[in-house]
Amino acid sequence: MKDKIERLKKQKNAVILAHYYAPAEVQEIADYVGDSYYLAKIAKKTAAEIIVFCGVSFMGESAKILNPEKKVLMPDLSADCPMAHMVAPGKIEQLKREYEDLAVVCYINSTAALKCLSDVCVTSSNAVNIVRSLPNKNIFFIPDRNLGRFVAEQVPEKNIIVNDGCCPIHAAITAEQLMQIKAAHPNAPILIHPECEPELLAISDFIGSTAEIIDYAAKSERNEFIICTESGVDYKLMTDNPNKTFYYPSPWPCCTDMKLNTLEAVLSVLEKEDNEVTVDRSVSERALRPLDRMLELGR
Ligand code: SF4
Q1: Mean pLDDT (whole number) for 158-170
Q2: Domain residue spans in the chain?
Q3: Secondary structure (H, E, C), the chain
Q4: N or C terminus of the chain: which is more exposed, having fewer CB within 10 Å?
């Protein structure tokens, strides 16, 4: 299957982008593996004619919005992120009426329709810096309450109103699960994603995006770590650090939508060129503005 994928990729001038939460065997054959910020930047500059995006729907949509002339395919079009829908547009309108200078800051994990109502997109790796750099005092952070609260703590000079959405995978990890794994490995520092609940962040040693967690583990002189994020990251951690040990809360946090990106589905989409991501032009034009602004401010 891997040989066939390689052949088709070259033949069709396709590039495969995979998120760290995609299955290990898909990360293995991907041309680029990363978090949503890195993949958005790659999608923006790739010269390939076809982008196969192994992630969830908001990522495929973002790639299409950044490259309207390219063919963006997803191995499984039903791979979706529940959090991406967790904002009521009426709430945005209401807050815009209440605060004259309101900036709507949209975590990239959101639908194109919500991006249209936003001023700037962010990811977990650039949210703090981008929010800090905005001239606006009043910010509505959508859709993730936990990342929003984390940013609010780091940027106390802003009035950050947080929307009540969450990632069901990260928010389901409990402090008890984390304490259990810590009790078994007391010398291992806890590296945690800011989509987790605040009481877990409070007992952790390092808070960062998936890419920042990977970077921290690689640079650290320690040789064992407790990883508190989606367990697909284990492939990259083990590949980069074969002599280090990584522990996860039990059960291992697993995003079933990300796991729909199987090797079979990648091969099938390359063969058939079906599952094309489409975004209505009027939506695409408006959703591009906050994405472009993120890439500009993120630089
Ligand atoms: S891990 Fe959470 S935020 Fe990421 S795609 Fe899955 S549900 Fe969405």
Answers
A1: 97
A2: 2-80+258-278, 83-166+286-298, 173-247
A3: CHHHHHHHHHHCCEEEEEECCCCHHHHHHCCEEECHHHHHHHHHHCCCCEEEEECCHHHHHHHHHHCCCCEEECCCCCCCCHHHHCCCHHHHHHHHHHCCCCEEEEECCCCHHHHHCCCEEECCCCHHHHHHHCCCCEEEEECEHHHHHHHHHHCCCCEEEECCECCHHHHCCCHHHHHHHHHHCCCCCEEECCCCCHHHHCCCCEECCHHHHHHHHHHCCCCEEEEECCHHHHHHHHHHCCCCEEECCCCCCCCCCHHHCCHHHHHHHHHHCCCECCCCHHHHHHHHHHHHHHHHHHC
A4: C
